[in-house]
């Protein structure tokens, strides 16, 4: 009998039963006021006169009118470089002990994002929120006694000017509470291995020693790790190694494109739970099994705003026009794409993280990630966001009985005009012309803007199949394997030329 598991499950269920009903809109108003109060004496708070904003009868409106949008380049050049240089009280009180490195989607240069103690506390509370939500999923008691495989970047953080830096998953794992260490795998020693391939090989070698009940990590890297474990032990699926595996906490990107290929690695279905952890904070997690949507965590040191995802408001580099309107949680509508804006306890203010989301349930503040502001294909008026591209790929998987966990494309100019040129990452290889026709026909039926574009400047679709491993190698060559990496779903022509040269060398 799972005595400890029954105790843990009972505590979680009792806590949820006693939890009061909350109002996300009111919680967000309180969070904004707390952020402004705490940061009013910082350099940023004095510059934008937070004290006066706090005296306003409409704090949220005055706040948006007083402070411009900031992408990483703007806030870094104007403010965070001072923090990086060691100045205190720049955009948040004190000086952060950690910086999260994020190479974004270009891999040209790592961003350095402050991670304050308040942010680490926020991430811990969000993780606790997720654990409490497990009471809604009716997991058996013995699940709460199993170990958790947390696959992220290395916890071997680098020292720089007295601060520690690394990817947010590595920072979070290096700060897990002492009581959790007995459940945490692969454990401190393996987690500190910098080389991704070496770390995964060590996981494979030790896999049979562990009783894994849950997985947590980015889908693309999780798949590659599971494949390595399966191949190393020469078994058919991961449940032959970890028979008690019952849940997977996905995060960082939408899970839908990976669903078919991920499930193929299992012996039987498990509970998939989506989360939204970025370098800038832990924003949302799925808290009920009836939906795959995630609930925004609205009382945890992060204030959210939402800009309608309209080409008139979004610049080519993913930044926003100065006149782009922002909405509060009380003003949004369901099934509309929004650019997510955050203000946080790490001193990010009206910060564009580059993701787009849509609300599936406004009253519950439940969302889904729909794409990236930079991954919007509108070169020839086709107006395709990532969620529409994902739908098209899922259609191919169902129609052609194939697994396509990775893809990228570009509106590429040929002698006779533009073609949407796709690279589909799959270990199966089908007729490329037939696949292109199927893809083209689906998009014309599903998207009126695409159909109009096909009657004008867009000549058609070209499809190329490449091995899934090529996408992993590309990410490894441009960034760092195993971390918070978002594969470029849409590329500009210059970047796409780099990609095609890479593919020709590695296929």
UniProtKB/TrEMBL annotation:
Q: Which residues form the GH3 C-terminal domain?
A: 389-493
Q: Which residues form a coiled coil?
A: none
Q: Where is the GH3 middle domain?
A: 297-362
What protein am I looking at?
GH3 auxin-responsive promoter family protein
